[in-house]
Structure formats: structure tokens, C-alpha cells
Design brief:
By secondary structure, this protein is an alpha/beta fold. It is 26% helix and 32% strand. It has two helices and four strands. Strands 1-2-3-4 form a four-stranded mixed β-sheet, with helices on one face. It is globular. The N and C termini lie far apart (25 Å).
């Protein structure tokens, strides 16, 4: 299960971000309620797969199109490794 809680300009991701859980967040309507600088807090994310990483990259692109500046905080090592192997680590705006 994936849960995304909004606390002002911070989205806190918890649970599992994979092909089975991300469909509940497509389209990602929470982006519509945000403006300016936004933080995706991944400290409570337990697991992510390649579909979850692709979904996250898509949301980052949509956020940029909407004029949002997103920072990823507390990125799990599993996600960093997956992004590195997938050669997309430099696309992630990691701030920690």
C-alpha cells in the first residue's frame, strides 16, 4: 500500500511505490493543490520498483511544467541504487 499525506508544501510518501500501488495516484491530483517550492519526503517509503521510479520521474516532469520546484528529501538507498542502475540519478532533485 502507498500513502501520500500532504502537510502544506510537503508530501510525505509512506509504504510501497510499485506497479501495484501507483495506479491509485494516477493522475496525481495532489500536484494541483501545490505552488512554488515543494518537498517530496520519502523517509517513510519502504520499497520502490522501476515502475514506481518511472512514475516519480513523470510527476517531477509534470511538477516542472506546472511551475513547481520539487526537492526530494530522505531518499531511500534502494531508490538511489535503482536510479543509478537505471542511469536517471541525475534527474532526481535530491536535496539531502
Amino acid at each position: 500500500m502507498l500513502n501520500i499525506e500532504q502537510q502544506q508544501q510537503r508530501l510525505i510518501f509512506s509504504g510501497v511505490l510499485d506497479r501495484n500501488t501507483l495506479l491509485a495516484f494516477w493522475p496525481f491530483r495532489l500536484l494541483n493543490s501545490l505552488s512554488g517550492d515543494v518537498v517530496f519526503d520519502l523517509s517513510q517509503l519502504q520499497s520502490i520498483d522501476t515502475a514506481g521510479l518511472a512514475w516519480l520521474l513523470k510527476q517531477l516532469a509534470l511538477a516542472r511544467q506546472a511551475g513547481l520546484v520539487v526537492q526530494l528529501q530522505h531518499v531511500p538507498e534502494q531508490m538511489r541504487s535503482l536510479a543509478k542502475v537505471s542511469d536517471v540519478l541525475e534527474l532526481l532533485p535530491i536535496s539531502d
